[in-house]
Give the backbone structure.
Amino acid sequence: MPATTFDDCAAPVQKTMMAQQHANSDANVDPAEIARFARLADDWWNPHGKFKPLHKLGPARLGFIRDAATRHFKLPLRGMKPLTGLSILDIGCGGGLIAEPLSRLGAAVTGIEPTDANIGAARQHAKATGLVIDYRAVSAEDLADENRTFDMVVCLEVVEHVPDPAAFIKVCATLVRPGGLLILSTINRTPKAYLLAIVGAEYVLRWLPVGTHTWERFITPVELDSHVRAANLEALDCQGLVFNPLTDQWSLSRDTDVNYIGAAAKPL
């Protein structure tokens, strides 16, 4: 599930978040979305709060990332820190729900967000847990302007929130070093996704506030693959993320009808 958002943010909050987009005025971000996430900054690490779906989704996403990385970079999948030696950029890191476990797996992690509030929450939690993560309140475009590259770029539940996904993925691709890997996760645009991710999650189960999702912004795997190829990356290799209500757990699956996650390599 994508991160929880609200539709009722006040105009002053929106103005503040727009001012926090820093140096790059061409950042491919939605000011309203940024303002909504900022309103929830204090709730990121509450496993029973507004980000509960992301806490539940975390282990399945992390398993995919770990396996994709160890397979692609030919790392031994043993020990507590299989990602040692890799530099990883987490775009749209929020409060650090994925950045922290990636750091614990041994990676050197940089996390970016356009909002100071989310970055502040992420820094505070990392400090409290003794993790060293380079958190920065910048956009992906800002970082691309610095000519930074990483072994792996992770961007989870973000592309469905940006105005121009194709342009955004091109920016993400520039941040991947030659021979590196891009990991993306999002929601498919299908009737099933509408019923489960919007009607079910928002109106029936109340996992998320009403208005969190916009069905028209969901992206099919075919469309995402097209964007990835246009960014000069190899074809997207994706798996579904499926929720089992009997076990209250998410797992990887061949079913990509709703949530899915994929990896694309950058040629040498």
The chain has nine helices and eight strands.
